[in-house]
Amino acid sequence: MIARCFSLFLLIFLLTSCKKDSPKVPLIEVDGKTGMLAAVNKLREAGCKCGQDTMPPAPLLRWNDTLAIAANVHAKDMFYNNYFSHTAPDGSVPIQRAKAVGYTGGSVLENIANGYNSLTDVILAWKNSEDHCKSMMDSSYKEMGAARANEYWVQEFGKP
């Protein structure tokens, strides 16, 4: 009996002590309330071209901490699980992930990007992509949250 307990203890000790530490990921809120929000609102305030469509100025967005949490969760998940998609490996989509962290709005649009090191570069990439640009300019969305995990960027736009 004592030998079994010792063996079990030794096995648990070895499993936990040999476990690889998770990589340290710089989880950056992208200076959300000032940086990302200001960049998107600057675009909305001026209006822009998204592909062939001219988008008129749109009302400014307000920051939503719950959408920022949803963005952070998805950015970290993509980084740690090495994928890049609006649909997570568990099958969840943006509205489901937002609701899971407490978002009460009725609709969520999501922009994702990978491989960009600066806010300026990722905003320019989204602006130059017709669908991403239209998401940032959609006047029916009133709030946003955003996050970054390493080079994985996520914007969540919500309708309260």
TrEMBL record:
Question: Which CDD domains does the record cross-reference, listed alphabetically?
Answer: CAP_bacterial
Give the source species: Mucilaginibacter lappiensis
What's this protein's name? Answer: Uncharacterized protein YkwD
Identify the residues that the record assigns to the SCP domain, covering every copy. Answer: 37-151
Which positions carry the signal peptide feature in this UniProt record? none
